[in-house]
Structure formats: C-alpha cells, structure tokens
Write a structure and sequence with these properties.
mainly alpha; 0% strand; globular
C-alpha cells in the first residue's frame, strides 16, 4: 500500500498547486523584466520559456515514475547513497527555504509600498505567518484544498484586464520580432525564473492519487501559467509605451491603478489584498518542501517541529532585516540562479543518472 495513501491530493489540486506557485510574484514584475531585454517582443519569450518549462516538467515526471513512492529526498539517498544523498537533500532544503523566504519578504515589501507604508515589518511577518503556519502544518492534503479555494477566490481577477484595454495601442507590438532573435533568446532567463515552481513535482508526485495523469496535470499547469503571463505581459505592453513599462517596478499594479470604477477606488489595493492568497500559495509549497525534507533527513515523522522553527526564525529575522527594493531584487535574482540549476539543470542530470542506475541494476521498471 502507498505510504502516502492517507495524505493524497487530486489531479485538480496538483494542477492548482503548481500553477499558483509559478505565477506568484512573477505576474507583478515580469513585464518590466522582459521590456528591458526583449522590448515588446517579450510575450514571445514567455511562450518559449513556458514550453521549455513544460518539457522539463515531463522529464521530472519520467524520473518519478520509476520511483512512485519516493519523495525527492528519499530518491536522492537511493541513487547516490546515504551521505551524498543527504548532502544533495540538504541543498534542496536550503533552496526551498530560501525561495519561501524570498517570496515572504517580497510580499511584505510590496504591501508596505502599496497599502500600509508605516507598518513595521515584524507585524506583517507575524500576521502572514499565522495563516501560512496553520495551513502548512496540516500537510499536503489541506494545502491542495487551499489551492482550490485560492483559485475560486481569485477567479474574477483576470477579467479586470479587459477593463485595462481602454486607450490601448496595439501598434506597440508591431512589427513582431523587431528586436531580433538574440534579445528574445537572451530574455529567456527572466522568463525561466518566472516559471519556477514546476520542480515541486519532485515533492508532489508521491502524494498524487492519479499518478497516470501526472504528465497531463503538469502540462495543464504550465499552460495556465503561459496564458496568465502572456495575457498580463501583452496588456501591459499595449497599455503603456515600451519605454514607460520599464519605469514601473510592478507594472501590473500600475495598470490596475489606471482603472476607474464608479463604485470602487484604488483598484490596485483591492486586487492586491486578494492577490495575497496567490502569494501565500507560492510560499506554502516551498515551505512545506523544506520542512518535509528536514523531517525525512532526520528520520522523523512530524514536520510541525521543523515548521515552527522556520516560522520563528522568520519572525526573529524580521526584527533586524528590513530589505530595500534593491535587496529584494538581489534576493530574487539569486533565487532565480539557484532555481535555474535545481529546476532546469538538475532534472536532466538526474534523468540521465537514473536511466544508467536502473539499467545497471536491470530494474524491471526500466
């Protein structure tokens, strides 16, 4: 019997966890990053980056299909032995914890800039940590349920993009490919950072009830991310001039600020309040990955102790570490570089190594 049979997630929950982890902070800032390198051809880069992410997602699933009841941390010990496996697992734990921390401090920074600038960081950290702790401590099944709830609660938000189509200039996108091939390809790095989150399939696969649909699920999740990123990027490009997009750190919020409704002012504040749910769904899966890894690395059963320690470290750190905008950007870039290795280089290496491993052992699954 599957040892995770009492803590499983459905295919829909699996899709929503990956999709919501991917979009997170990226939707707010990606148009600006793409405009710097590829100009208004950045939407082409989004599609290319999404396709690359999709292919590597399938590679991850193929790796896990040979070891359906193993999490990544258990698989590393199986493939590389006790000490090397634990060393690689520790690196993944640190990366997951750093990713969650980066998004958490970025969320606090955004809320301070756009909604309540005078509030202290540690207060927001405590307020954010309470719901994140309550959901993460319950395990992956409750995280999956929360992912469904977040999707329903925020389903109305994309329709506001239609209101932003007033006074747009579609000619900003023309001619297509005017920047040339090299700028489009060079901006792939920014897009790849935005699609980080699919590598969590390493952790989610053992908990998936219908494992035969894992490939279909992760392809759908990536398609949803491609559609979301493409739509937001194109709307920003046709609403703002090519030069104007680069003036805004978070173009999506500036876009919402331009929308005027007779019954609602400051739409960007209203939308950002709801968007916090999606940001939480970027933090929670990475945080759960970190505490699950710590638990399995130490041979324990209860992940809540590790979770409490990490949450406490966050709160203590928020008293002393108040990052500036440049520091938030630097944290995001360093996470992106580490993510490039863990989500794009590592799966290919592990796939080749696993193929050799099973071939040498004449594993019948091969």
């Amino acid at each position: 019997m599957n040892k995770y049979s009492f803590n499983q997630i459905s295919l829909i929950q699996y899709i929503f966890i990956i999709f919501e982890t991917q979009v997170g902070i990226g939707v707010l800032s990606l148009p600006r990053d793409l405009a710097y390198t590829a100009g208004t051809d950045g939407w082409i880069t989004v599609i290319l980056g999404g396709l690359v992410s999709m292919l590597l997602s399938i590679v991850i699933i193929r790796i896990m299909e040979k070891n359906p009841e193993y999490t990544l941390f258990e698989l590393l010990s199986k493939y590389f032995g006790k000490w090397v496996g634990k060393g690689l697992a520790a690196a993944w734990i640190l990366l997951a914890a750093y990713a969650a921390s980066t998004v958490m401090f970025s969320a606090i920074h955004i809320i301070k800039i756009w909604i309540i600038p005078d509030i202290r960081n540690f207060i927001l950290m405590i307020l954010f940590s309470i719901p994140i702790y309550m959901i993460t401590k319950q395990g992956i099944r409750v995280i999956g349920i929360f992912a469904e709830l977040v999707f329903i609660v925020t389903l109305w938000m994309p329709f506001f993009l239609l209101l932003a189509l007033k006074d747009t200039q579609w000619t900003y996108l023309l001619p297509i490919g005017k920047e040339g091939v090299l700028p489009i390809l060079s901006s792939l790095k920014s897009t790849i950072y935005a699609f980080l989150g699919f590598e969590l399939a390493f952790m989610l696969y053992p908990f998936l009830k219908d494992k035969k649909s894992a490939v279909k699920g992760i392809v759908i999740a990536n398609l949803l991310s491609i559609i979301t990123y493409s739509a937001t990027t194109i709307v920003c490009f046709i609403r703002f001039s090519p030069a104007e997009v680069t003036d805004y750190v978070y173009p999506m919020l500036n876009l919402l600020k331009l929308i005027r409704l007779p019954f609602l002012e400051r739409l960007e504040i209203f939308s950002l309040s709801f968007y916090l749910f999606i940001i939480f769904m970027t933090i929670i899966p990475y945080l759960f990955t970190a505490v699950l890894g710590i638990t399995q690395l130490l041979g324990k059963q209860d992940h809540r102790i590790a979770l409490r320690i990490l949450i406490l470290l966050w709160i203590l750190l928020s008293f002393f570490f108040i990052p500036t905008s440049s520091q938030i950007t630097s944290m995001g870039k360093s996470w992106g570089i580490a993510g490039l290795l863990s989500a794009f280089v590592f799966p290919i290496f592990l796939w080749v190594y696993g193929w050799i491993f099973h071939f040498v052992r004449r594993d019948p699954r091969q």
